[in-house]
Design goal:
Layout lengths: L2 H28 L7 E8 L6 H4 L2 H14 L7 E8 L4 H15 L3 E5 L7 H6 L4 E3 L5 H5 L3 E3 L4
Parallel strand pairs: 1-2, 1-3, 3-4, 4-5
Length: 153
Amino acid sequence: MSRVLRRVRLGISAFLFGATLIGAIAVPVSAGAASKGLFKIGFVCSCTGAYASSLGVSSGAFNAWADYVNAHGGIDGRKVQIFVGDDANNPVTSISEAEKMISQDGVSILTDNSNVDSGWANYARSHKVPVVGLAGDTTAESSNPDFFPIGQT
């Protein structure tokens, strides 16, 4: 796949992710969940390592999305806070990053742009943390009911 095509795909994925995320969280937030305070989102990516040329820009795009959302009032009045965990395409690092975001940072949703997410998929599920995916091509995204890959939600 050409570099230009990868960047176009990433840009489209980031846009679709934002629309999917807003749709996924709008109902719970509007239905009476804590309407003020931070909306914490974890972003696990293989941003360095073997896939750096394709995925390295994704965390910047995600942070730009959060800045835009926050500049326009947040989501239902709640500011978005992003936690980025780069697993460098390493399964052990990926597990550690996802577990830290869930147990220490208190994220209420994870986003997945990792190629080694199967190690932490059940951990997220056991803590009732849904996962909205960008990669769309891993086993966890196609088999775990708490994963919502773009194009399949």
